Amino acid sequence: MVASAVAGFGRTTLGLVGEMGRMMVFLISTVAWMVRPPFRFLQVLKQIHFIGVKSLFVIVLTGAFTGMVLGLQGYYSLRKFGAEGWLGSAVALSIIRELGPVLSALMVTGRAGSAMTAEIGIMRITEQIDALDTMAVNPMQYLIAPKVLASVLIMPMLCSIFDLIGIYGGYLVGVELLGVSSGAYTSSMESSVEWKDVYGGFLKAISFGVIVSWVCTYKGYNTTMSAEGLGTATTEAVVLSSVLILIWDYFVTSVLM
Amino acid sequence: MKTPLGQEFAATKAAGAASTPVIRLRGVEKTLGGQPVLQGVNLDVPRGKVTTVIGKSGGGKSVLLKHMIGLLKPDRGQVLVDEVDITRLGSHELNEVRKKFAMLFQSAALFDSLNVFENVAFPLREKTKMKEAEIERKVLEMLEAVGLTGMGHKFPAELSGGMRKRAGLARALVMGPEIILFDEPTTGLDPLLARTINDLIVETQRKFGFTAVMVSHEIPEIFGISDYVAMLLDGVIVEMAPSEEFQRTRHPAVREFIAVGPRPEVVTSGESRRPGTHA
User: Is residue A14 part of a domain?
Assistant: First the structure.
């Protein structure tokens, strides 16, 4: 009984270590193919459009409501100490340092990451990836590298849009609805937000871009040859990306503190 | 490892009957998911001929085909293309060898995001420095050769099964490959469409002179279109011979397999089809 439990634990651990190794090899291979010619600018642009432009609506929506709810919560918390004037600082720091990068990455995972897994998975199942191979076109270079590169380029931009909209959402609720002074809101923000907060947020956004595209393309590329397998791969991609984003966020935050 | 006595002999006999084999498989073994699929395959594919590998569904025919183009690597054994063992090549060298090949997949494997014209133009745009006007001329020529004139703007999702196969064939032909691998090209098509596709393969093979390797279980249709037929059984090639000779085989398992032809009602005269319909 104990022996079989230990054996089961060992098998699971070995399986996990093996999977982590394969994922790392996949990432290294992607980066290697990214820097080898021919460079596929058109593919990267298409992916920027797919991951970035098509995610704009959901980013704007979540950014606005995140800022608005922060405005509400911040106002009622700060009012207890008579510090409503610091609302701008509270909203801006929360969004720029934490919520902007994390929530925009989670939104991109849900919208574009799952679609990446499904697209590549279907290409695997219908032998389109094999067809690329037979035409001597490397699928890592043609399919995967542009997605990862586009994610890395576009995530900081989406994050900054989220930040701006979020801060304006907080302003709308705090200043226009709850009567906080407009000058206090902006000056508190100006005095407390430092450059390292901004680049820290961008650094997170870039690394989240790697995580989302890496995990989602890996899961699609290695899907099993069935509709059920593709469904499982898509679910795993979204769950694993989201969890890794939150775990990685903690470590990056602790280093940047 | 199973090594039937007739196997080497059959391969050698076939090779002797034609010119130098373009593809040679030697003792190829492959296990997938713990299941031995190929158990020591020896096969010589004659140059410039149509060779068909028959066998049971799920018997490893597609796996065999994927070994020939290096999509799968054998656990043991050699895959020689023009005497170069492709199992030992790196990705760059393998890609060079793959330029000799094209493959028509079971599902045609057209790229969903590209229309028929772009699908056929894809290898030209990726692998040549042809000008766009030249690419357009070549693609239109290929579409005409497979009977898809005027269909270039359609996307794969808008095509019937037969049209997809035709488009796949046009894409396979466009680079003028020396070898084309056909993975069950008529699966999922009705008998008349299957015959049309088979005729198209033979017609294009005669026109362009490539070596064709086909896997199929369309008995007896394949005898009419193949120069050589080989049978894969339990992971090994148990028989390979020129088509007519193959039909007179004394191998009991092969005789049993090829004796089970399609039911009479399946081979229709096409009366139910509307005149003028095509794949």
Answer: no
- Three-state secondary structure call for residue B27: strand
Mean pLDDT over B44-71 rounds to: 90
- Tell me the residue range of the domain where A175 lies: 41-256
Question: What pLDDT score does A55 carry?
Answer: 92
pTM of the model: 0.82
Q: Which residues of B touch A134 (CB under 8 A)?
A: 69, 71, 98, 101-103, 181
Residue A200 counted as domain residue: yes
pLDDT tier, B86 (very low <50, low <70, confident <90, very high otherwise): very high
Tokens of A143: 């399919």
A95 closest CA partner among A176, A159, A188, A152: A159
ipTM (interface predicted TM)? 0.77
The percentage of chain A sitting over the pLDDT mark of 70, rounded to a whole number, equals 100
**Residue A122: its chain B contacts at CB < 8 A?**
112
Residue A207 CB contacts under 8 Å (≥ 6 apart), including other chains: A248, A252
What tens digit of pLDDT does each residue of B191-211 get? 877 888 888 888 888 888 899
Distance CA B264, CA B89 (A): 48
What does the pLDDT read at residue B1?
Answer: 38
What confidence category does residue B267 fall into, taking pLDDT thresholds of 50, 70 and 90?
A: very low
Tokens, residue B273: 């089809």
Does some domain include residue A105? yes
Rounded to a whole number of angstroms, the CA Rg of chain B reads 19
A192: Cβ contacts below 8 Å, ≥ 6 apart: A86, A89, A92, A93
Rounded Cα–Cα distance for residues B86 and A195 (Å):
55
Contacts of A123 in chain B (CB under 8 A): 111-112
Q: How far is A119 from chain B (nearest CA, A)?
A: 10
Q: Which domains does chain B have, with CATH numbers?
A: 5-100+178-259 (3.40.50.300), 111-176 (no CATH)
The answer to whether position A144 is within a domain reads yes
For chain B, the distance separating the N- and C-terminal CA atoms, rounded to the nearest angstrom, is 43
